[in-house]
Design goal:
This protein is α/β, with parallel strands linked by helices. It folds into 3 domains: 36 residues, no CATH class; 146 residues, Periplasmic binding protein-like II (D-Maltodextrin-Binding Protein, domain 2, 3-Layer(aba) Sandwich), CATH 3.40.190; 103 residues, Periplasmic binding protein-like II (D-Maltodextrin-Binding Protein, domain 2, 3-Layer(aba) Sandwich), CATH 3.40.190. It is 33% helix and 23% strand. It is built from 11 helices and 13 strands. The longest helix has 15 residues. It is elongated and about 55 Å long. It starts with a strand and ends in a 38-residue tail after the last strand.
Length: 315
C-alpha cells in the first residue's frame, strides 16, 4: 500500500517552536494511485485508438501468395497495418463460429453466405475477388508428366510413389471427385500423403512426395513445377469472397481494405499467382461500403491444359 507523508502545522508553543506532526494518510495514498493509473504512470499502456489497431484479416491459403505480394504496397497506400492469418477456409470459418474476432475475411461464397445468415458478416460488404482451379505439381527438375487429359492424369497418378494432397481444404472435394471418376480412388489413397493447410507443395519440394494435387495458386513455390491444371472434364473452380465483420473495430479501415482488394493492384497480383480476378464495381458513396455481386469471367486461357512451369507463369 502506498502512503503519503503529510506535514501539518498545529501552531506555536510559548517558546516559539512549531509543533509538527506527520500523518500517514491512507486516503491520500489511494487517491495518488488512482491518479497514477489514469495517467499510465504505473506501466499500463492506454488502449490504441481503433484507427491505429492492425486490421485482422482471416484469409484462405488460396489467395495467400497474392495478398502477401501486395501487403507492403497496401499498407503504404492506405496507411493501414494488416495482421493476416492464413489457413483453409473451413478452418477459419470454424474459428469465426467459435468467436474469433476479425475485420475482414476471405473465404468461399458458401461459407460467407453462412456467416451472413448468422449475422457474423455484412452482406452489403461482400465481393468475389478471384477464382482458381486445381492442378498437379512435381518437384522442379523431375521428368515432366502429362496431365492434360483424364487418361494422361490417371497414368501419371498411378506411376507416382507418393501423392500429396490436403487433408482438409477447398481442393479436397475436387481431388476426391476426380479420383472417383478416374476409378483409381483406392490406389491413390493407398499411397497418399495427407498434409496440413498449404503444406503439400512443400512436401514435394523436400522430396517427400512425387506429386501434389491442390489449388494452382498454392503449387507455385520454389522447388515445385506446375505440370498443369486438371483436365476440363475433372476441373472445378474455387471462388474467393471477401466480407467485413459487423463487429470490425475499425469499420472505415476495413472498408478501405475491401476497396483495395477489388482494385487493379490486387487483380494484377492475382494474375501473377495463377488466380483469375473477378471484376467488382463498388459504388462510390460515403458511409458503409456497398457493392454489387459480380459474375465470373472466362477460364484463364494460359492455364487450360498447357502444363506450364513456374517460369512460364507471369511473376
Amino acid at each position: 500500500m502506498l502512503f503519503t507523508a503529510v506535514t501539518i502545522t498545529l501552531g506555536q508553543t510559548g517558546d516559539g517552536m512549531n509543533i509538527r506532526r506527520t500523518i500517514l494518510s491512507r486516503s491520500l495514498g489511494l487517491a495518488a494511485i488512482a491518479v497514477l493509473l489514469a495517467s499510465g504512470a504505473c506501466g499500463g499502456a492506454p488502449e490504441p485508438a481503433p484507427e491505429h489497431t492492425p486490421l485482422r484479416l482471416l484469409s484462405s491459403n488460396g489467395v495467400r501468395p497474392a495478398i502477401e505480394a501486395v501487403q507492403p504496397h497496401l499498407e503504404t497506400a492506405t496507411g493501414l497495418h494488416l495482421a493476416a492469418e492464413f489457413s483453409t477456409a473451413a478452418a477459419l470459418k470454424r474459428k469465426i463460429d467459435a468467436g474469433e474476432p476479425f475485420d475482414v475475411a476471405i473465404l468461399t461464397p458458401a461459407l460467407v453466405d453462412d456467416l451472413v445468415a448468422q449475422g457474423r458478416a455484412v452482406a452489403e460488404s461482400r465481393s468475389d475477388l478471384a477464382r482458381v482451379g486445381v492442378g498437379v505439381g512435381a518437384r522442379e527438375g523431375a521428368p515432366r508428366s502429362d496431365v492434360s487429359t483424364p487418361e494422361a492424369l490417371k497414368r501419371t497418378l498411378l506411376d507416382a510413389k507418393v501423392v500429396a494432397y490436403t487433408a482438409e481444404g477447398q481442393s479436397r472435394a475436387t481431388v476426391n471427385k476426380a479420383l472417383a471418376q478416374l476409378g483409381i480412388a483406392a490406389e491413390v489413397d493407398a499411397k497418399s500423403m495427407l498434409t496440413g493447410p498449404g503444406e503439400g507443395p512443400g512436401a514435394v519440394a523436400a522430396g517427400k512426395a512425387d506429386l501434389v494435387m491442390t489449388l494452382i495458386s498454392e503449387i507455385l513455390i520454389p522447388g515445385v513445377q506446375l505440370l498443369g491444371p486438371f483436365p476440363p472434364e475433372l476441373q472445378n473452380y474455387i471462388v474467393f469472397t471477401a466480407v467485413r465483420s459487423p463487429n470490425a473495430r475499425n469499420v472505415e479501415g476495413a472498408n478501405a481494405l475491401l476497396r483495395y482488394l477489388t482494385g487493379p493492384e490486387v487483380a494484377e497480383a492475382m494474375k501473377t499467382h495463377a488466380l483469375e480476378p473477378i471484376t467488382a464495381r463498388w459504388r462510390d458513396t460515403p458511409g458503409p461500403l456497398r457493392g454489387t455481386r459480380p459474375t465470373s469471367g472466362h477460364v484463364p486461357g494460359q492455364l487450360r491444359g498447357t502444363g506450364l512451369t513456374n517460369g512460364q507463369i507471369r511473376r
